[in-house]
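Chapter summary example: a protein plus adenosine monophosphate.
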Amino acid sequence: MKILVINTGSSSIKYELFDMEQHQVMASGMAEKIGEDTSLLTYRKTLPDGEPLEKVEEAVILDHRKGMNRIVEFLIDPEHGAIRDRDEISAVGHRVVHGGETFRTTTVIDEAVIAAIRENIPLAPLHNPANLIGIEIAGSVFPNALQVAVFDTAFHQTLPMKAFLYAIPFEMYEKEKVRRYGFHGTSHAYVAERAADYMGCPLAELNLITIHLGNGASMAAIRKGKSVDTTMGMTPLAGLVMGTRSGDVDPALPFFLADHLGMSLKDIEALLNKESGLKGICGTNDMRDVIKEMEAGDDRAKIALDIYAYRIKKYIGAYFAVLGRVDVVVFTAGIGENAPYIRKLCCRGLGGFGMEIDPERNTKAGNGIREISFLNSKVKILVIPTNEELRIAQETKAAVEPPFPGA
Ligand code: AMP
């Protein structure tokens, strides 16, 4: 079975084609800067002799439909294409950012599903419209493939009310669906499952804290395989300090900025989403640069890293209290997988919780799953590379291929 995973943004389409039987990525790439003067198309695949092939093309791509058509041309190109015919693709798995309370699981798309994703646009005004464009175009470009929606929010739909409800008038929840939703669900779910495989233990018996530290960052408290709390909220602005997002601040801060500085709501939104986080404190949002500047003696970079790690450590403590017993703590995504300094800061002084990071294992480079706690640490600390696209492909396959009773 061949599954195409699509992640449509406002000016981009990321794609990855999987052969599910061979457990192989057949091709991947991106159309970006769609609608701008010059757009960029990337196509990657591995040639039969094992050599990687990468084509990068500058082009004018006026809209998403043209972008998708160009991607298909790459995929079925007689010389370097990954497939002969678009009908070889059985299903297209779409990353959809916000499923609201409507979607608790991955869902095969029909008209009712499209309508429900549309209804959730107020909760994700930038993302859901782009995701809908991707669904609409993929439906016409791959008329014989099933379309499947995989929601960033779905994994966290198991949060109990005490964890998802804000202490504001209840009607805001009842009428406007204002509540904590949480995001990065595919990543938290993927690494939790990989952790269970690694531990040789059913996920349903494990308690975990998963820490996704990429450009966006979030944590989840997972009890017996189910998410019971998470740091992001109704939007991805809440919780941890991120590259350019503030994470948690006093909810009264916007009133102060408006009253004393005359800032508009739009300005405040941009300040908290695009000018804050690491960038706000030390001027750069790329963790590699922040660490380099700290090593070169920059005080602002040092305090930015301290604040970043302190927030994570505070939530680790909170989630120990939530879960009662923690078996595994997982670090994942760009920073979680590659920044031992950050992992060390986050775990420092947590021996009292039975969480003991081994400095030597923590700094040892490697691919795949790595155990970075001391052998006798009560809580295992793991580094697990995330793979959101693979998880979307796996969920898509499961959705279109229900196990038949007795099969
Ligand atoms: P992601 O969103 O998962 O792609 O992660 C992006 C973040 O990972 C950026 O802040 C990068 O600076 C960071 N990152 C990637 N590689 C490294 C590395 N070797 N050391 C520290 N941070 C890294």
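Key point: The longest strand covers residues 24-32.
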